[in-house]
Each structure stands twice: as structure tokens, then as C-alpha cells.
């Protein structure tokens, strides 16, 4: 009997099972379900034969219309429903496990149990629940308290001891008789079950630490029968098996949050209807989707029909000092799983970080070994040391990428997944985050050689052309690929023919592309997977921008200020302005150091604050340079902050990626303009701090007097764009498309993980530090795994299907006020006691007008009308009292669809913004106000028949847009606002807290100064404590955080429902004619540096912004976006891996 082979079709919708499915279809009269005759691109497949079944020539014994077995190969995609924000997911295949409950459990593909029979799976060791490995719960709790929490047992730790240990129901002091912490720590360190020998018990923790020695070949430049090299052994490489770490991770309770199927995140803007892809998590990135598709096309293992999924590996490594003083340091390697959400990975105490190795450093004694070698000069020793360091690093990676790991990459690991289904898991390395010196080490290239980039072959002398089309073409066409044959040829010449590691022979073959003679472990071990290993070296925003290109620019701006005739006084003015910048948010923007220009131990967060708070940079630098140069500096600072805000978004769409690409081009043009037009007009020398550091180093080298000082007292310094950190600015768009947003793989995550190591260090004896650090990590990890067993068993015993994700979002209160009423204010007493304060003029009528609007439910757009005195008298305030509080929270949805809040505190952070409700062209999207009072008030209408209602009220002082001031992102200027004069009846008013959408960070416009024409001089409730006058104008810091920026930049999923109309799209300006190849050459002489959108084409370019603001509405542009918290300040008392 023949089987009719139907054409291969794809079905959009729900597809159950694996990619290749055997279905029994009952087909009659040649008809198929219409839903199956479409593919994912809506293209009809080749139709089946039109000959009726009864007329076909089947083998004997077949009759027309007989039911036949049909093999249908389904390669269909699956698209979920949209959620409240318009987000849906598009999978290559219907997933069988989805941890977010975004897809209903009824729609998930079913894993057939029959396919799992006979499959060999490595059994995971049985781990007993607490009090394992101790004898009773009393000792378990005590040891758990000792090995977790803070390294300093503070008041909080003592409280935790009492609450978690001493008062526990299973605590029994009798169990502590004969207690010894050393003995029980040894129990915790054992690999096998207590009381059992290693020969007859299973290894309970197979992912334990191992120690190995590394043998490296050192070229000796002497020919012998054994070759021209000697072995040098470096002991103390501590590591954990990557395969066992993967097994343990899938056995961990956190595996329930693993995303095993990548998907495209699609955003349907509910207002504009535009459909575009959104980029955020690694498992929604193009690289993972492509890797998953390639894996499904790969031939399955013989006899295996298990689902194949990917374990996405993300590595971080960076050397760190373990203490403030001394030279104790460690070089850890961290592993994160991209299957876990980046928001969980960013929290140091989430358990998402896996410490898997400590790279050893070359011992100091290796120099003694070098001295025993013949024909070795001082320069040769330095080259040998650099070579040995590379060999050691890649030798360690050869151990980590062992045979088991390579086998797993090619053939997978059979694991039981969190839904209890068995799947074949394939490890894939997606990202490796490191600073530039370590990137050069990983890529086996020379630091800042002729071609310094680890990913492409752009020459060093062309780096300053970053942002041009020629640069983009060079990056795309000259990708770096490891040249194994050349490296082997050079190594053979050195190790057998006694060539020098830094000789002309090496330079001739490898020097042109800046290669070194170390065999790259990643290229050697993983090349068979068809992956481009060097693409894993993702951008590093913290080191390359905040501590790299931005620091270089900021430092040179300080040098330029010193180059002015009044240099020292101007720098002092800069420092004074920085100190007047107010703080904002919960650590988002903090008070700056005493003298910011000195950059004393300036941490990365301080540089980031200076940048994103153009709050700092633009208002602070304004007016310090001559007018012709001031415009260049201000626009450069604006576009740098704009680029930084876009590069650091935690959710991108196609629109914002295009904006990032354009902003990058504009920024690079502004940098070249700054470098070629402004910098040559100044004689810039090193800063006092730089000069002192240089002289100190010369003194240490014994050459303090060898280099005479310049008459200016310092060495000449110029602004240099030919560095890798400026070159890396051009890699962000491609990196985000490939691997998701930068917060997913920022080195700041690894820096936070360092805090746990530094917390362990005081617990060591300071001898054999790495060994002790690995033991402390192991103890905490084991206790965490044991401690989660009861919770895991509780979860698994429930057997509850996950509920489908709702199509609506949970309503969160718009604001929150403390409920206490400890500060009652008698209205008439307050008005009588402060009758001379102009701020209280009209307080009571304005309050009753506002309460009438609220009680009568008058729309915001119709609240301009005032009520008569008789109508106001109908408002009854209970006991004529207001109940004042000093704090409140404003809740909002961020641009990346997360719930956040702003904390308002009277007198400190009390400025808010509200929507204008106006949608006309040129209208500014927001009104701004300073909150002067936060009140509870019990109120009712006379004769209304209802009881008193409790209303929350804000008393505010309004700020209006500066007259004639035009704000657009393309213009490169911040919105400028100022207090409405008290002569205007609308200077003060009342506000419903539900209307406030966000706190706002206001920076004084220092060049406009202070005045008393807006409010008479003296103390007033409208001023903060100690103030007797007001800043005439303020700048709205749209770069305070990412959510604030997106509210001005354009539409985003989290803000899709917050605007009544689409934004004007000021970011998407037309090409200014500077992006074409013809302008590349013009850039060389700086003739085409200006960007149309950045030129001050405003007809008010010379306006006097010191005039009082008289209108609360203004003319500007965009809105939309949402905030994103900075990395949470990790509590060192609660750090764990």
C-alpha cells in the first residue's frame, strides 16, 4: 500500500509537539483544512494533485476513498496574543515550556512521554533537605547564619540571629553541647554524604571546585634537540566544570524561570498602529533566534527525538582588588545564564551569578626564570612576560572548554527541565563582557596595535572617522577572524628555530593585523560549531564610555578651562556649580564631590551622573567658554548625553535603534568639530593631578629629574580620538540587535558580583586567599541549595497549572500618602500667622475651587473656570483643618513596562510634572510644579447628603516655559522653565496627586542668576529653608534617568497608553547631508561639521531668558517614555552568588 506524500506546509497558530510530527489525518475527497494551507509568510504551498482520489492509480488492493496514513511535516511558527501594552511573542515553534505565563498552558505544545523512554540521562545526586549535612536543625540554623549575611555581624545581624535561629521552633540548645565550628565547617566542605567513605557514596555536589596547574611554554631562543622552549608551571588555577555547573543550574529552583524557546518580541503601538520588533532580553535577540533555528536544522542524535533547546552562556571576567589597602587581588570568572531575565541577573543576591573560576596571575618569580635565559634583553623580558600571560589565560580556558563541554556543544546534554520534561540541552556562548585590555587578551591581539579592535580590522589611524559611512563599511567588510595557520607557522619558528617573540619575523607575518602568537582557545575548541567567536566580545558601556570616552572628554574640558585667561577662577566656578546641583531619586543622581574638577577617586557612578545629568554638564559648562566656543561645547554635551541615554535603554524598538544610529553619527561629527575647531585655539597641558602623578611615577622609576618640566608647569595634552574607546561607539546598534540591550551584558553586573568576593575576603586568613575564597563561595552556595529544597518540594507538590497571562494590567495606585494625621493645620490660624507672605494670597479660595472641581468631577480641561463666593461656601472642610505630611510616592509604569515609583520629600525632592492635555503643534507636553504642601483633607458639599470624603491635595508653585524658548531634541537644548511671578493669579495652585506623572529634576540656569522679581525677597513658605531669593530659570533635566528621557524622546510600549496623541517624532529628522560618503573627506578639514538639526536656528537664539515666565504652557515637542532604575545599590550584608 502506497502512502500519499502531502507537500510540506506550515501553520501559523498553535502547533503541538516537535518540529517533525507524525499525524494520522483522515482525508477524503482530497480536502485539507484550510488553516494548514498557509505558511508563516502567507505564501500558499504547491497545491496537491487535482486528480480525485478515486481516479488515482494506487497499488492493487486500494479502493477509492480509503483512509490513509499521512506524514505531515510541520514547520510552523507560533504567535501569542497581545497584552495590554500591545506586546506579543512570535516563536519559531510552539514552546512546550514558558515561565512567564505569557502563553496559556492550554496552548503550549505537549511533550510526548513515549519519546523519552530509553533515553540515557545522567542522574542528579539526591540532596537531602535540611538539616543536611548536620545532625540537627539547631546546628544547621547556626551554621547557616554564620555563613550567610554580612561579613560584619552588626545590629541587624544580631537581630537576624535571634529571629532566624534562637527563636526558631526547631531550635534546641541541648544540641549545641560539644559544638565546634571548625568541625561542622568540614562537614559542609565534604563532597560526599557525612559518615560515608568516598568510595561507596555518590558525590552530592558534583559542581565543586577543582585545582589544576598550568604548564606554559616559554621561548628560550636557544636551539636544542628538544626545541627552543622550556616548561614553566603556574599552580593554583581554581575552576568548576562548566558542564556540571549547567547540570546544577537546571536542577536549581531558579530553573523555573528559564526561557528555553527564544522569541521575537513584537510591539503593536495601540495608538499609531505601527508594528515593530522590540529588543531587550538575550532570549529575544537575533543571535539566539538564529542559533535556535540552526540547532533545529541540525541532524538529531541517532535514535533521539527529544526537544532540543539552548543554554545561553554569558561570561564576565575582570581582575579586582579585594581590599582598599594592600595588593590582594583576584581575577574571577562569572557565568550567567541568558535564559534568565536580565532583571534577575542584575540583582546580586538573586543567585543568578555562578562563580566558575579564578584565573591565576603570573608569579613574580617568573622574572627570575627569565633572567636565566640567554639572549634576553630588558625589552625582551617585557615581551616574554606579555606572551606568557596570554598563554596562561588561554591555557586556563583550554581547561574550562574541556572535552565534556565541547561534546555537550556538539551533541547536547540530556537534562530534566523544570517542568519535569527531559530535553537535550546545547550550551552556547553568546557574550563575554570584559574591559578593553581583557578583550585584547581574549581575542589574542595586541593592545592598541595597528588594528586595535578585537572584532574588526579598522586601522588605528582611521579610528577618528568613526560615525562616517566609510567607517561603517570598513567594520562590515573587514571582520576579524582568527588566522590559525599563520599563528602555527610563527609558533613553530619561535619554539623550534629560536626566533624572538617580538622580532621582525613575527611582526612581518602577524603585526599587520595586530595578532599575537598565542593559539586562541575559543577558536581552537569551538570553531566546529560554525560560530564567530570574536562577536561574543560585546560592548562595554561602563569602561568604554563612562570611564572611557566620556572621561576623556570631561578631562579635556577641564584642561581647556585651565587654558582660559582666568583658568583657575573658571574651574572654581565650575566646582561651585556642581555642588549646587540637587540630588534626585533614590541614588539616581547624588550630590557631587567637593571639587568635581579634581576627580579624586571618582567612581563610575559619579562620571555617569555628570553625563546623564546634563543636569550637570550642560548647565554647569554654560557660559564658561567664549560665546563661539560655548555653543560647540553645549551641543556636544547634549548629543553625548542623548547618545548615552539611548545606548543605555533597557528596551529598544526599531525606532529607537534608528535614533541611536543617527545620534551616533551626529555625536561623532560634533566630536570632530570639537577636536579640530575648538581645541587648537587653546594651549592645554596636563591637570595638576596628572602632573603630580607623572612626577611621582618618574621619581619611583629613578628618573624624576630626567624630563624637564615645561614652562607652563605641565606636559602638553591634546584631545585624542584615535583610541579604541571612541571606536567602540560605533558597535552599539549592531550589538543590541544581536544580543539585546546593553544592560543585559554590562560589566557593571560583574562589578556588583565583586562585592560578594570582597565580603568574603575579611573572613580569610589572608594566606592562600583564592583557595579560601572558593571555599566560602562553596559554603554559601551549598547552604542556598539546601535551604531552597523545602520551597522547591512545596512548589512541585502543588501541581498547579500556570494561569494564562491576563490581557489587562493590574491597577496600581497612582500615588501613596502616609495615613497618619499627626500634623493638623488650622486653616484660619495658618493664614492669620502668615498673612504677610504673598505665597498664601488666595490660598483658601484656590483650595475651595480645587475641592469643588474634585467633588463635582470636573474634567481637567474644564477646570480653568472659577466659582463664585457662594459656591465656594458650599465646600465644608471638617474642623477647618488640613492634615500635612512631608512625603509621598508617585507610581508609574516605565517605558519597559515595569512598575516604579518616585519619592517626594518636601524641601528636597519635590518637583513634579503633569500632562498639559494639549495636543496642538508646538505645545510643550508637560507642566511643571514645585510641591509646597501635601495634605489630607476631609470635605463634603453643603446639602449634598453625603458624609465627609478624604481627599489628597498638593499645594504647588507653578513653573512655566521660558518665553520664546523652543525645545527640540534636534536643536540640542534642554527645556528651560521658571517660576510664574506672584503677580500672576496662577502662580500658586492645587493639584490632584493622581495627575502627577513623574518627579522631575531641575537644574538652575546658572548664567541667568537669581532674583527677587518673581517673589519678594525674604523668607516664604514658597522657598526652601535658608533661601531668600529664587533662581530665575531652571533647566529640565530630561537625562535624569531613562524613563524621563523616553517621555521626551518618543513612543515606547510602557508609555503607549499615557498619551492622547502620537509624538511629533523630533528624533527622526531628515538626513542633514552629513551622512554620505562625500562628506567623509570634508570632515578632514572640519568644513562640514555642523548638523542642521543642531544649529541654533531658533528665532529666539539671542533671547533674554532672564525674563519672568508668564505661561505654564510652552512650545516644544515630544513626550512618551518611561524610567528605568539604575542598578540597585546592593546590600553587602545580603550578597550571594
Any overview of this molecule?
Pfam families: Plavaka. The chain has 1137 residues and is an alpha+beta fold. Among the domains are: 53 residues, no CATH class; 164 residues, no CATH class; 28 residues; 268 residues, no CATH class. It is 30% helix and 15% strand. It contains 31 helices and 30 strands. Helix 15 crosses helix 16 and helix 17 packs across helix 18. The N terminus and C terminus are likely disordered.
Helix-strand blueprint:
Blueprint: E1 78-79, E2 87-91, H1 137-146, H2 155-166, H3 181-189, E3 209-219, E4 229-240, H4 242-251, E5 263-268, E6 275-279, H5 286-297, E7 308-317, E8 320-321, E9 329-330, E10 332-337, H6 342-345, E11 354-358, H7 366-371, H8 378-400, H9 403-411, E12 413-416, E13 422-433, H10 436-443, H11 469-477, H12 484-497, H13 504-510, H14 521-526, H15 541-562, H16 567-579, H17 604-612, H18 614-621, H19 627-647, E14 652-653, H20 654-678, H21 688-700, H22 724-727, H23 732-739, H24 747-760, H25 769-787, H26 789-798, E15 815-816, E16 824-826, H27 827-833, H28 843-855, H29 869-872, E17 875-877, E18 881-885, E19 887-893, E20 899-905, E21 911-915, E22 926-941, E23 949-961, E24 976-979, E25 988-991, E26 998-999, E27 1002-1004, E28 1010-1011, E29 1030-1031, E30 1034-1036, H30 1042-1049, H31 1078-1084
Parallel strand pairs: 7-13
Antiparallel strand pairs: 1-2, 2-5, 3-4, 4-11, 5-6, 6-14, 7-10, 8-9, 10-11, 12-13, 15-19, 16-18, 17-22, 18-22, 19-20, 21-22, 21-26, 22-23, 23-24, 23-25, 24-30, 27-30, 28-29
Amino acid at each position: 500500500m502506497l502512502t500519499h506524500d502531502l507537500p510540506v506546509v506550515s501553520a501559523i497558530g498553535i502547533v503541538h509537539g516537535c518540529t517533525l510530527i507524525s499525524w494520522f489525518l483522515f482525508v477524503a475527497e482530497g480536502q485539507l483544512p484550510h488553516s494548514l494551507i498557509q505558511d508563516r509568510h502567507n505564501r500558499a504551498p504547491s497545491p496537491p494533485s487535482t486528480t480525485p482520489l478515486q481516479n488515482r492509480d494506487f497499488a492493487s488492493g486500494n479502493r477509492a476513498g480509503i483512509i490513509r496514513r499521512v506524514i505531515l511535516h510541520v514547520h510552523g511558527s507560533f504567535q501569542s496574543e497581545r497584552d495590554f501594552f500591545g506586546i506579543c511573542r512570535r516563536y519559531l515553534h510552539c514552546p512546550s515550556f514558558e515561565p512567564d505565563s505569557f502563553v496559556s498552558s492550554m496552548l503550549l505544545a505537549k511533550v510526548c512521554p513515549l519519546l523519552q523512554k530509553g533515553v540515557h540521562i545522567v542522574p542528579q545526586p539526591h540532596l537531602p533537605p535540611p538539616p543536611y549535612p548536620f545532625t540537627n536543625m539547631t546546628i544547621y540554623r547556626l551554621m547557616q547564619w554564620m555563613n550567610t549575611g554580612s561579613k560584619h555581624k552588626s545590629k541587624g545581624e544580631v537581630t537576624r540571629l535571634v529571629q532566624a535561629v534562637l527563636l526558631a521552633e526547631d531550635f534546641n540548645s541541648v544540641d549545641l553541647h560539644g559544638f565546634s565550628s571548625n568541625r561542622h565547617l568540614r562537614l559542609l566542605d565534604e563532597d560526599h554524604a557525612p559518615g560515608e567513605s568516598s568510595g561507596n557514596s555518590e558525590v552530592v555536589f558534583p559542581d565543586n571546585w577543582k585545582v589544576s596547574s598550568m604548564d606554559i611554554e616559554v621561548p628560550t631562543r636557544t636551539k636544542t634537540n628538544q626545541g627552543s622552549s622550556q616548561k614553566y608551571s603556574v599552580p593554583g588555577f581554581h575552576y568548576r566544570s562548566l558542564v556540571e555547573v549547567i547540570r546544577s543550574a537546571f536542577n536549581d529552583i531558579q530553573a523555573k524561570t528559564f526561557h528555553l524557546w527564544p522569541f521575537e518580541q513584537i510591539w503593536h503601538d495601540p495608538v499609531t498602529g505601527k508594528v515593530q520588533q522590540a529588543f531587550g532580553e538575550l532570549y529575544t535577540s537575533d543571535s539566539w533566534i538564529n542559533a535556535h533555528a540552526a540547532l533545529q536544522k541540525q541532524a538529531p542524535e541517532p535514535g533521539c527525538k527529544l526537544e532540543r533547546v539552548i543554554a545561553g552562556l554569558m561570561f564576565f571576567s575582570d581582575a579586582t582588588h579585594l581590599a582598599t589597602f594592600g595588593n590582594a587581588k583576584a581575577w574571577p570568572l562569572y557565568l550567567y545564564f541568558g535564559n534568565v531575565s536580565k532583571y534577575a541577573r542584575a540583582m546580586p543576591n538573586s543567585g543568578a551569578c555562578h562563580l566558575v573560576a579564578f584565573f591565576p596571575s603570573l608569579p613574580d618569580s617568573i622574572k627570575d626564570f627569565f633572567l636565566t635565559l640567554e639572549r634576553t634583553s630588558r625589552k625582551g623580558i617585557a615581551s616574554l612576560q606579555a606572551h606568557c600571560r596570554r598563554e596562561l589565560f588561554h591555557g586556563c580556558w583550554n581547561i574550562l572548554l574541556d572535552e565534556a563541554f565541547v561534546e555537550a556543544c556538539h551533541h547536547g546534554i540530556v537534562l530534566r527541565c523544570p517542568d519535569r520534561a527531559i530535553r537535550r540541552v546545547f550550551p552556547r556562548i553568546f557574550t563575554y563582557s570584559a574591559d578593553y585590555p581583557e578583550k585584547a587578551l581574549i581575542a589574542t591581539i595586541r593592545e592598541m596595535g595597528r588594528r586595535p579592535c578585537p572584532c574588526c580590522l579598522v586601522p588605528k589611524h582611521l579610528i577618528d572617522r568613526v560615525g562616517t559611512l566609510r567607517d561603517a563599511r570598513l567594520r562590515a567588510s573587514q571582520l576579524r577572524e582568527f588566522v590559525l595557520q599563520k599563528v602555527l607557522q610563527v609558533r613553530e619558528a619561535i619554539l623550534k628555530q629560536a626566533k624572538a617573540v617580538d622580532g621582525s619575523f613575527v611582526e612581518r607575518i602577524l603585526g599587520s593585523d595586530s595578532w599575537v602568537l598565542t593559539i586562541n582557545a575559543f577558536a581552537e575548541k569551538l570553531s566546529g560549531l560554525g560560530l564567530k567567536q570574536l562577536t561574543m566580545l560585546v560592548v562595554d558601556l561602563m569602561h568604554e564610555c563612562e570611564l572611557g570616552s566620556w572621561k576623556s572628554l570631561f578631562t579635556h574640558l577641564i584642561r581647556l578651562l585651565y587654558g582660559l585667561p582666568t583658568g583657575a577662577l573658571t574651574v572654581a566656578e565650575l566646582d561651585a556649580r556642581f555642588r549646587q546641583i540637587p540630588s534626585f531619586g533614590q541614588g539616581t543622581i547624588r550630590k557631587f564631590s567637593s571639587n568635581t574638577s579634581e576627580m579624586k577617586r571618582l567612581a563610575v557612578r559619579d562620571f555617569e551622573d555628570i553625563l546623564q545629568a546634563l543636569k550637570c554638564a550642560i548647565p554647569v559648562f554654560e557660559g564658561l567658554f567664549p560665546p563661539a566656543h560655548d555653543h560647540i561645547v553645549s551641543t556636544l554635551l547634549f548629543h553625548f548625553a542623548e547618545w548615552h541615554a539611548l545606548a543605555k535603554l533597557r528596551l529598544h524598538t526599531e525606532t529607537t535603534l534608528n535614533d541611536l544610529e543617527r545620534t551616533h553619527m551626529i555625536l561623532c561629527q560634533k566630536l570632530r568639530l570639537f577636536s579640530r575647531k575648538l581645541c587648537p585655539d587653546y594651549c592645554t597641558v596636563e591637570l595638576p593631578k596628572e602632573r603630580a602623578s607623572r612626577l611621582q611615577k618618574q621619581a619611583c622609576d629613578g628618573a624624576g629629574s630626567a624630563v624637564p618640566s615645561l614652562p607652563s608647569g605641565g606636559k602638553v595634552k591634546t584631545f585624542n580620538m584615535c583610541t579604541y574607546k571612541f571606536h567602540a561607539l560605533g558597535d552599539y546598534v549592531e550589538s543590541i540587535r544581536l544580543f539585546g540591550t546593553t544592560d543585559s551584558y554590562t560589566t557593571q553586573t560583574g562589578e556588583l558580583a565583586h562585592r560578594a568576593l570582597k565580603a568574603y575576603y575579611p573572613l580569610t586568613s589572608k594566606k592562600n586567599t583564592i583557595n579560601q575564597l572558593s571555599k566560602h563561595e562553596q559554603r554559601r552556595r551549598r547552604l542556598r541549595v539546601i535551604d531552597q529544597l523545602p520551597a522547591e518540594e512545596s512548589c512541585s507538590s502543588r501541581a498547579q497549572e500556570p494561569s494564562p497571562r491576563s490581557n489587562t494590567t493590574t491597577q496600581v495606585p497612582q500615588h501613596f500618602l502616609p495615613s497618619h494625621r499627626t500634623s493638623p493645620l488650622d486653616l484660619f490660624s495658618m493664614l492669620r500667622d502668615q498673612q504677610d507672605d504673598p505665597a498664601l494670597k488666595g490660598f483658601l479660595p484656590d483650595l475651595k475651587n480645587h475641592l469643588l472641581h474634585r467633588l463635582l468631577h470636573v474634567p481637567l480641561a474644564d477646570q480653568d473656570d472659577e466659582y463664585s463666593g457662594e459656591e465656594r461656601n458650599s465646600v465644608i472642610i471638617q474642623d477647618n483643618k488640613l492634615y500635612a505630611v512631608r512625603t509621598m510616592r508617585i507610581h508609574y509604569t516605565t517605558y519597559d513596562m515595569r512598575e516604579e515609583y518616585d519619592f517626594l520629600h518636601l524641601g528636597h525632592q519635590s518637583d513634579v510634572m503633569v500632562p498639559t492635555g494639549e495636543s496642538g503643534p508646538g505645545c510643550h507636553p508637560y507642566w511643571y510644579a514645585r510641591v509646597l504642601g501635601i495634605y489630607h483633607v476631609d470635605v463634603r458639599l453643603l446639602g449634598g447628603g453625603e458624609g465627609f470624603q478624604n481627599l489628597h491635595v498638593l499645594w504647588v508653585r507653578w513653573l512655566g516655559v521660558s518665553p520664546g524658548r523652543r525645545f527640540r531634541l534636534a536643536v540640542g537644548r534642554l527645556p528651560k522653565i521658571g517660576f510664574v511671578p506672584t503677580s500672576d493669579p496662577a502662580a500658586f495652585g492645587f493639584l490632584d496627586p493622581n495627575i502627577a506623572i513623574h518627579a522631575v529634576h531641575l537644574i538652575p540656569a546658572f548664567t541667568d542668576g537669581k532674583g527677587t522679581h518673581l517673589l519678594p525677597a525674604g523668607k516664604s513658605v514658597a522657598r526652601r529653608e535658608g533661601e531668600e531669593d529664587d533662581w530665575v530659570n531652571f533647566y529640565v533635566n530630561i537625562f535624569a534617568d531613562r524613563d524621563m528621557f523616553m517621555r521626551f524622546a518618543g513612543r515606547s510600549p510602557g508609555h503607549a497608553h499615557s498619551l492622547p496623541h502620537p509624538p511629533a517624532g523630533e528624533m527622526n529628522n531628515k538626513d542633514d547631508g552629513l551622512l554620505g560618503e562625500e562628506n567623509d573627506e570634508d570632515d578632514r578639514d572640519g568644513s562640514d561639521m555642523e548638523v542642521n538639526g543642531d544649529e541654533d536656528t531658533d528665532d529666539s537664539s539671542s533671547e533674554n531668558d532672564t525674563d519672568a515666565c508668564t505661561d505654564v504652557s510652552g512650545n516644544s515637542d515630544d513626550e512618551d517614555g518611561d524610567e528605568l532604575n539604575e542598578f540597585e545599590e546592593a546590600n553587602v550584608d545580603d550578597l550571594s552568588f
